[in-house]
Amino acid sequence: MQNRRIVITGVGLTAPNASNIGEFREKLINGVSEIQEVDLRYFGKAPAGICSFPETLYRKKKENKKGTRAGCISVYCANEALKNGNLQITDYNPSKIGVYIGLTEHGTVETENEVYNISNYDYNVDYWTHHHNPRTVLNNPAGEITLNLGITGPHYVIGAACAAGNASLIQAVQMMRLGEVDMALAGGISESVGSFGIFASFKAQGALGSADDPRKASRPFDSSRNGIVISEGGCVYTLEFLEKALERKAHIYGEIVGYAMNSDARDPVLPYGKRQAECMRLALERANLQPEDIDIINAHATGTKQGDTEECKAIRTVFDKSNTTYINNTKSIIGHAMGAAGVLELAGNLPAFDDSIVHPTINIENLDPACDMKNLIINESKKIDSISTILNNSFGMLGINSTVIIKKFS
After folding, report:
1. Residues 161 and 397: beta-carbon distance below 8 Å
2. Which of 72, 152, 180, 395 could form a disulfide with 175 if both were Cys (CB 3.0 to 4.6 A apart)?
3. Are residues 158 and 135 in the same domain?
4. In terms of domains, do 299 and 353 share one?
5. Candidates 51, 72, 106, 300; catalytic one
6. What is the pTM assigned to this prediction?
7. Is 162 a residue of the active site?
8. At residue 330, does pLDDT exceed 80?
9. Residue 363, SS3?
10. For residue 252, is it within any domain?
11. Which of 106, 155, 336, 359 is catalytic?
12. Residue 254 lies in a domain
């Protein structure tokens, strides 16, 4: 069971520039950013990534009102993943389907909204909604998926800061190989743009990105970068054992062949390239791959000075001798979708197995010398001979690091 091969057979997503994988891929290849300016109560204006998707496609407006924005995104992405994978819940025993959703934070949006609501009534708590508790428990987005789809297997949320999306994939693979579940819905969600507190905190840290044109505010690796562009979004995958996927003649996006997670144990917010390098090396070891076997590295880089520099050090340390490894960054196009970042960024690169195109890192006008890396794809996509492996990095606060490696199925 420990060595059974696990593949991705369905992808459902919503990002600040698309609501399906085909449109998402096209926008990334062409470097189309749709980051916009939002005006948040108490805070003011800031660039942000906002999703537009059919919110009542898979559940009614009344259900969305009762639930959460995170739950709404989760339900949409889970249903889209099943549809994309040509799967029905009845294809599996619903008690043997697991739901694992990564989150950076949850409950902040709901709490801020309720405090604001009762402020209009002289803070009379009689006006506090009775839906608050189920809305703010951490398992809410995963639980809303089970309620919508009738899944009776385990569901929970993985809190791993901005490494949470990758962590959910790792958790799903481990649970499948343990025999706990036969299939999994795994991914990550971000509702961060609904919280003025998150914007205010990043601004207080000097880490909130800005630019006259909001589409240029997210600019990892550029000398003028000044911080993170906060985005909402979500991505959920259907994970199946290879033999089952082959039996039903499913389209296989890729096989999860390696992963690793570790901790910096150093600082609450400042990243540490040495531990990030160790994380990548461990994932390569588990995948039985060498650095030169990796065709694309999707860098985590968020647009902060030290964060980008530390990751670049780590990548150069591990991949310095590889001349065939290309590097890109999706956040430059869609912003930082927090708990959804890793899985959204991976989804945007998976079609490279078919089209052999490495999408660009945009908004680099003057590359920071500290971020100069071999084969960094800048501003325009690059078509190469073939792509068979993708390494996806996601790192987060409190020094949590994650790397997932996906291989083209053949």
Report:
1. yes
2. 180
3. yes
4. yes
5. 300
6. 0.97
7. yes
8. yes
9. coil
10. no
11. 336
12. no
